[in-house]
Design goal:
7 helices; 7-stranded antiparallel beta sheet; Jelly Rolls; mainly beta; 4 domains; 713 residues
């Protein structure tokens, strides 16, 4: 098998070389002959999610025939785990939801056909190379009805090569891609699709995106270059990871593993974002063959300019065989043991979970290491894959935002016990209607749900091990306080997952445009910041995660927020609810009659009249009755209030128009509130403690009300 693979790779390399412009008269981009990648328009630009495919059709005996639909990562699951779309091609599928009936016996389920014309071409010399991916297995590629013998057993996680040659004809030609959509008695329908990308087709790649400003920028997935893009070529040395100890204790290079056959699959296929790496093949081939024993893969990253006390790393890993241990700076941190090479096992390290394990992020260079145990008694495939990397840290000079927590953790940011109420997230809306606590689920279905880690866990409706609940919408709310911090500098980062659908995250009731993509097998990054168009409020804010549970009866549902961190700069003005940089009547008007958590300025967990008094007395240091907010309560305030003309009219009034008790009206009860505060003609609030006796207040009110009514008239 290895000999045939080496021959295949040499053949492919020669074919790729021959297809380069200027090296063969009959070669060139496939669009020269009318062949297009999937999911593009006539200008080779990738189409949008749910657009109609222009160049491929589904033909008989497909389970669904007609025009395929474009599927991109914007639509979420099944991308990922399907290979992400890029600037060259996208997936095409039989329906808007990407699903279609399958076949139990591995027979052809869908045949995608594309047609093209050849004229004035030397057919005997023509070769057209490409790559394809499919869900599920790619059974064959037919050129004008002739089988070319190419299969895609790696399926949907990467691209497998093929070559069109030998069966061309002058005039009209067809290429058919034959796919099986796997099925069983319990699931006769499921996601299915095709991805085709011809060599040389497509527009120039956009420049690599710069790293996120809060990224741990020197930490990379396996098998990638300095821009985080998958390395080209097989058995290429990984520039970021090395094997610091093999079975005999010696150091080894870590090399990229080919994607064109065993061990991929059954290993999860390489993709554009990461690749498998392995020790040099002990047989001299490139099949990742390694001796039995333990391999320790290590990478170094820098925390320069970042706060080591407010950092997170979230990623998925695959190992062959087992991967029981992850080490931060040489100290083991708690992670779920890798389930092996056929899928992804998620892990997370936060500053809190690292400290609890006796480890820590350092201010300079740090190391992250992965132990991989290769079983067996003779050489066999072994390797490591680190993918879906989310590594973030707060910049130096910022402080953590109080109240920012992942799901399913206590005040120490470490996981709760099974069935414990989450102290930070509340189910404020559910199909049952009533607000309720959210529980740390004791039996989430993991897999396929993302694994619990040492820094967060799944939460869901209470008293059910897997969060079983009726279909409908669930909203989980988290409150946090920016008192003493600058709201304009606030940033919240993290990843989240949901069952079934995470619709969006809302900041103070406003959508932030952070839907959860990929469904419950994966974690989807999110960012909430002024740079992303979001607005934080001084004082208390709320984040609401909206989750929709599908189905027709009770079934598992839940929320997972992982790797969450928040930070801001010192500053800001507590109680400035209208964000104008000062405490004024507009802030009191915003508070009036509201029970929103953001108005809990005294921090007692409730929003009521005590917060209004705290705002006036402690924050603004003025008096009830100070209508013009000059720090004094005197006759000038009565003049200003009555000029608005709202006294005892029943029309909504604000603070400046006499609503001092917060009921949005101006009437005699506002005088009671004002005079009970004792500030009339008392000067500035500081140093004044005398409060008039109730009897004196009553006499004062009786004397002043006729005067005020007369002034009003």
């Amino acid at each position: 098998m290895r000999i045939s693979k080496r021959w295949l790779r040499r053949s492919m390399a020669a074919a790729l070389w021959m297809s380069m412009p200027g090296l063969a008269s009959a070669a060139g981009p496939a669009t020269l002959y009318g062949l297009y990648n999937t999911g593009v328009n006539n200008s080779q630009a990738v189409l949008k999610d749910n657009d109609q495919e222009l160049h491929y059709t589904l033909i008989e005996p497909s389970q669904i025939v007609g025009t395929p639909v474009i599927a991109t990562a914007a639509g979420g699951f099944p991308i990922p785990p399907w290979l992400d779309d890029n600037h060259l091609s996208a997936w095409i599928v039989p329906s808007n939801d990407t699903s279609g009936p399958g076949d139990f016996d591995g027979a052809p389920s869908y045949i995608y056909r594309t047609s093209f014309n050849l004229n004035n071409v030397d057919l005997s010399a023509l070769k057209i190379d490409g790559f394809w991916s499919s869900d599920n297995a790619g059974l064959d590629i037919l050129l004008n009805g002739t089988s070319l013998g190419f299969t895609n057993t790696a399926q949907f996680g990467g691209l497998s090569p093929f070559t069109l040659q030998g069966a061309f004809k002058t005039g009209s030609n067809t290429v058919d891609f034959v796919i099986n959509n796997g099925a069983n008695e319990n699931n006769s329908t499921g996601p299915t699709g095709l991805r085709v990308q011809f060599v040389g087709n497509g527009n120039t790649a956009p420049p690599p995106r710069p790293p996120h400003p809060n990224a741990i920028a020197t930490l990379f997935p396996t098998g990638t270059d300095a821009n985080g893009i998958a390395l080209e070529g097989d058995a290429v040395k990984d520039p970021h990871y090395t094997i610091v100890a093999g079975p005999d204790g010696s150091a080894l290079d870590a090399l990229t593993v080919p994607n064109d056959g065993f061990p991929i699959g059954p290993w999860l296929a390489n993709d554009a974002n990461s690749r498998w790496i392995s020790p040099p093949d002990v047989t001299g081939a490139t099949d990742a063959m390694g001796d039995p024993g333990t391999y320790v893969y290590q990478t170094t990253f820098s925390m320069k300019g970042l706060d080591p006390n407010n950092a997170v790393i979230v990623a998925a890993r695959g190992t062959d065989d087992g991967g029981p241990t992850v080490l931060l700076n040489g100290v083991e941190v708690p992670v779920t043991g890798s389930r092996g090479f056929g899928g992804k096992t998620w892990f997370a390290i936060s500053s809190a979970s690292a400290t609890a394990a006796g480890a820590s992020f350092g201010p300079g260079n740090n190391t992250l290491a992965f132990q991989v145990d290769n079983g067996g008694e003779a050489a066999n495939p072994t390797g490591l894959r680190v993918d879906d990397l989310f590594a973030r840290a707060a910049p130096l000079g910022t402080v953590p935002i109080p109240g920012i927590f992942a799901t399913g953790v206590g005040d120490n940011k470490l996981p709760l016990e099974d069935g414990t109420d989450d102290p930070h997230y509340k189910l404020v809306s559910a199909p049952e209607g009533a607000e309720m606590n959210a529980n740390a689920l004791s039996g989430p279905p993991s897999p396929p749900w993302v694994d619990n880690t040492g820094s967060s866990r799944w939460i869901g409706p209470p008293n059910t091990p897997a969060g079983e609940g009726p279909p409908g919408t669930y909203e989980y709310e988290l409150s946090f306080d920016l008192a003493g911090l600058d709201p304009a500098s606030a940033v919240i980062l993290g990843t989240w997952s949901a069952d079934d659908v995470g619709g969006d995250i809302f900041l103070n009731g406003n959508a932030t445009g952070n839907p959860q993509l990929g469904g419950f097998p994966s974690l989807s990054p999110f960012e909430i910041s002024v740079a992303e168009g979001d607005t934080f409020l001084p004082g208390v804010n709320t984040l609401t995660f909206r989750v929709t549970n599908g189905g027709t009866s009770n079934n598992p549902t839940g929320l997972r927020v992982e790797g969450m961190l928040g930070f801001a700069k010192q500053g800001g003005l507590r109680g400035d609810f209208n964000g104008n940089g000062q405490l004024d009547a507009g802030d009191l008007d915003a508070m009036a009659g509201s029970t929103e958590p953001r108005f809990d300025v005294n921090g007692d967990g409730q929003t009521n009249s005590d917060d209004r008094r705290f705002w006036v007395v402690v924050l603004a240091k003025t008096w009830f009755g100070d209508a013009n907010m000059d720090g004094l309560f005197n006759s000038g305030d009565f003049v200003g209030a009555f000029q608005a003309g709202l006294f005892e009219t029943g029309v909504t009034a604000g603070w400046a128009a006499g609503d001092w008790n917060g009921d949005k009206l101006f009437n005699s009860s506002d005088f009671v509130t004002a005079f009970q505060d004792g500030g009339y003609d008392a000067g500035n609030r500081q140093g004044v403690s005398a409060v008039p006796e109730p009897a004196s207040l009553s006499l004062l009110l009786l004397g002043i009300l006729p005067l005020l009514r007369a002034r009003r008239s």
